[in-house]
Structure formats: structure tokens, C-alpha cells
Amino acid sequence: MVRRALTLGALERERAKKKSARDKRQVRASTTDADARVMKMADGGFRPGYNVQLAVAGKAEGGPRTIVGVQVTNVGSDAGSVGPMLEQLEARTGQLPGHLLADANHATLADLKACADKGVDALIAVPERMAHAQGQGDHSAQVEAWRERMQTPEAQELYRGRASLVENVNAQLKQHYSLEKLVVRGLDKVTSVAVLTALAHNLLVHGPTLVNLLS
Questions:
Q1: Lowest mean pLDDT among 6-10, 17-21, 91-95, 186-190
Q2: What span, in angstroms and rounded, lies between the C-alpha atoms of 215 and 211?
Q3: One-letter-per-residue 3-state SS of the chain
Q4: Which of 97, 127, 139, 162 has minimal CB crowding within 10 Å?
């Protein structure tokens, strides 16, 4: 009888531990920042954070890289972010890019449609999950056209410029402006920090031109 009671107690403790572990995995919010969400980081770990999206204009072969759009969310995925960024670019600059370069995380039907609706050439890497999948409903022609376009030498050559544009700027903002670690809390404050950092970057890269214009 005692042995059975001990066995049941051990089983109950084991179940409680497993339930606690499941509950911890399900918690996606930070205990110190209500707006932050636990996300997978570049080092493979999971920590509370924000998703900072940048739109960068420039030439892959060199010259200034200008941040023309900043978007901050507490969603770990990049899916669906192309449409809002295009709307921001149009409102901020009064024009849209001829080409939009983005990695495979942005490849969704909504992202492709957002580009097609605004006449923007979507040069978005094709993820494995969409390499052979059929388009859905009215989007099938857009999906097929995008996949075919990304296989052309012209599209592949243009897409290679993405790393030297936005990834270059991402690295600078992390290394020189410490944007990787934030000391503020809340989505609004994080957005303010990201925008101010983008402005500082733009002033620095365009400083020589501004000086020449004012002299």
C-alpha cells in the first residue's frame, strides 16, 4: 500500500512537471514588457523582443543606403509585412519602388498580391513550401508569374543585391547604434527608438552631401 502511494505520488509529480513545462512554452508574453513577445533570435535562442522591419533604398554596387521605411511589430514572423510597408513608403515619399527585394520569410499570397496591386516587381525568394505549390483561387496566376520570374537570370542578379543593401544596414544599426538591445519598453517607445536610429543613420550617410549643399 505504501509502495503504491509512493508510485502514484511520483507519477503525479512527473505530470505536474510536464504540465508546468507546457505552460511555460505556451507563455509568449514578457513579464517585464507587456507588448514584447518571445521570439526566436538569430543565435537560435528564444527571448522577449520586437520585430524591426526596415525598407532600404540604394544601389547594390555602392553609395549611400537610405532607410525609407521603419515598421516595428511584436509578431515573430515577417509574413504579411510587405503590404503595410508599401503603404508607408507611398505615404512617406509619394512614390513606390520599381523592385522590392525581400527574403523568403515575406513570401505569402498577401505579400505577392500587395506588390501586384501597386505595380511593384516582387523579387522575393521562393521558400521550399511554395516551390511547387499551386496558387489559391485568383492568386494562382500571380504565384506562377512570380516563381517563373525568380528563375530568370535578371531577377536573380537583382536579388543578389539584397544582402549588400538591407543586411548591410541591419548590421550597422546593431553594431554602431546598439539597436539589438533596447532599453525602453512598449511598442510605441521601441518604434520611436527605431525611427530615431534610422534618422541618425540617414544623416550620417548623407552628411557629406548635406554639407556640400549648405556650403
A1: 6-10
A2: 6
A3: CHHHHHHHHHHHHHHHHHHHHHHHHHCCECCCCCCCEEEECCCCCEEEECEEEEEEEEECCEEEEEEEEEEEECCCCCCCCHHHHHHHHHHHHCCCCCEEEECHHHCCHHHHHHHHHCCCEEEECCCHHHCCCCCCHHHHHHHHHHHHHHCCHHHHHHHCCHHHHHHHHHHHHHHHHCCCCCCCCCHHHHHHHHHHHHHHHHHHHCHHHHHHHHC
A4: 127
* Whether the Cβ atoms of residue 88 and residue 97 lie closer than 8 Å to each other: no
Q: Which tens digit of pLDDT belongs to each residue from 64-103?
A: 899 999 999 999 899 999 999 999 999 989 999 999 999 9
Contact present, 180 and 79 (Cβ < 8 Å): no
- Where do the domains of the chain lie? 46-209
Q: Is 127 exposed, middle or buried (0-12, 13-18, 19+ CB in 10 A)?
A: middle
Beta strands 99-102; 121-124: pairing state: parallel
- For residues 96 and 66, is the Cβ–Cβ distance under 8 A? no
Q: Are 214 and 80 in contact (CB under 8 A)?
A: no
Cell of 80: 504579411
Query: Among all chains, which residue has been given the C-alpha cell 494562382?
Result: 140
Q: Kindly indicate whether the domain formed by 46-209 is annotated with CATH number 2.40.160.
A: no
